[in-house]
Amino acid sequence: MTGGARTGLICVEVPDDSLFGPENLPYGVFAPPAGEPRVGVRLSDTVLDLAALLDDPIFLRADLNALLAAGPTRWREVRDQVRELAGTALPVDAQFPLSTVRMKLPVRIGDYVDFYASVDHATNLGRLFRPDSEPLLPNWRHLPVGYHGRAGTVVVSGTPVIRPNGQRRTGSDAPDFGPSQRLDIEAELGFVVGQGSTLGVPVTVDEFSEHVFGVGLVNDWSARDIQAWEYQPLGPFLGKSFTTSLAAWITPLDALANARVPLPTQTPKPLPYLRGSDDHGLDIDLTVRWNDEVVAHPPYGRMYWSPAQMLAHLTANGASVRPGDLYASGTISGPDPDQRGSFIELTWGGTEPVTVGTETRTFLADGDRVTITATAPGTAGRRIGLGEVGGTILPAR
Question: What is the Cα–Cα distance from 354 to 291, expressed in whole angstroms?
C-alpha cells in the first residue's frame, strides 16, 4: 500500500498546543507516497488512514461522499471510533506524516451556492457602490441573499489561481477585454452537505445538523472589475466562476459544539420558515495573510444570517440538496478596518493601499499568495484549527 514494509504499533504524539488534537479530527482525502487517494483524519501533523484503521471500504475512495450519504448516526459512530483509537498505539502503516502526502479536494461537489450573510460586508459594499443611497437593499434583512456558483471550478487549497480574463468597463460605455486588474479575495466559511433531502420538501432550521456534515474554509476569488460590469441585472458570473478554493480539511460539526454562540439581533424578525428553536452562530476567528503579512482578522461570530437559516432558505422553494453539495457564507467581515475579509473593503475600493511586506497593494498582483486560517473553541478547553485555504496568483493566459 505504501511501497515498502512498515510494521509495528506507535502512538501519535500530540503536543499540548496542537490545534489538531483528538477533540478536532477533521476529515480529508489524501494520496500516500505510493498509493491511491483515500479518506483520512488529521491528528496533530499525522494523517490516519481510515480504511486501514477501521477496515471499511467506504474510506477507500477519492472523496468523502459515501460517508456523507451515510447520515449523522454513522458520522458519530466513525468519530467515536477514531477518538477512541487516537489515544492508543496504532499500526505504523496506517499513519502518514502530513508533509509526505498529497491532499485532494475532499468532496465531489454537485452544487455550490454562495451567500452574502455578513451585515458588515454588505454595508461596506453598499457604501462603496451606492454612496448616496442606503447601504443595504430592502430585501437584505428579510432573507439570506445568495447565488448559485460554479461547482466545477471549486479546487483544493494550494491549487494555483490563474488571473481571469473578461470584459472590463474602461470609463466609457464601451468595455474592453483583458486580464482582471482588480483581483480580490473573499474569506468565507463553507458548509458541506452530508445527508441529502427530498425534492419538493424544504429543510427546516432545526434540521440543520441532520443534513450538514461539517465546515471548511473557502476563498471565493473575485474579479471586481469584471464583476462590476457584468453583474447587472442577473448577478455574479465570470467575475466569480473562474476559481473558488476549498480547504483540504473538513471539520465535523460535533467538533464545534463549544463554538456555538447566539445570533445577533435580527430586525425585523425573520419569517417563520427562517426561525428555529436551536439556531445559532459560530465563534470562529479567521486570519488573512497576504504574502505572509497578516492583514485581517475576520470574525465569523458576527454573521447576521446563520448556517441553518442559509440552508433553510436554499431549500425553501423545494430545491433539494445532495451529499457533497457546498454552500458558503459569503465574505466574513467585522465593523473594524482590520476585520474586513475582502481587499475591496480593506483598501476601500482601492483608494487606501495597504503595506504588504516592502510593497503596497490595492488588489492582487501576479505572484501574490493569500492564505486564510481559522480557529475556534474546542470541546477540551483549547482551540482547534480549521486548517487553511491558500492559493498563488498566476498570470492570465
Answer: 12
Catalytic residue among 121, 142, 148, 297: 121
Answer yes or no: 121 catalytic.
yes
CB atoms within 10 A of CB 107: 29
Q: Please state, in angstroms and rounded to a whole number, the distance separating the CA atoms of residues 6 and 14.
A: 21
In the block, cell 479546487 appears at 155
Number of independent structural domains in the chain = 2
Concatenate the DSSP letters of all residues of 85-102 into one string.
HHTS-EEGGGEEEGGGSE
Q: Do 48 and 90 form a contact (C-beta atoms < 8 A)?
A: yes
Same domain, yes or no: 39 and 155: no
The end-to-end CA distance of the chain, in Å, is: 39
CB–CB of 28/249 below 8 Å?
A: yes
In a shared domain, residues 38 and 122: no
Q: Are residues 254 and 279 in the same domain?
A: yes
pTM of the model: 0.96
Query: Tens digit of pLDDT per residue, the chain (397 long)?
Result: 344 456 799 999 999 999 999 999 999 999 999 899 999 999 999 999 999 999 999 999 999 999 999 999 999 999 999 999 999 999 999 999 999 999 999 999 999 999 999 999 999 999 999 999 999 999 999 999 999 999 999 999 999 999 999 999 877 778 999 999 999 999 999 999 999 999 999 999 999 999 999 999 999 999 999 999 999 899 999 999 999 999 999 999 999 999 999 999 999 999 999 999 989 999 999 999 999 999 999 999 999 999 999 999 999 999 999 999 999 999 999 999 999 999 999 999 999 999 999 999 999 999 999 999 999 999 999 999 999 999 999 999 9
Could you tell me if residue 252 is inside a domain? yes
Question: What size, in residues, is the chain?
Answer: 397
C-alpha closest to that of 182 among 344, 333, 332, 296: 344
Distance CA 390, CA 20 (A): 19
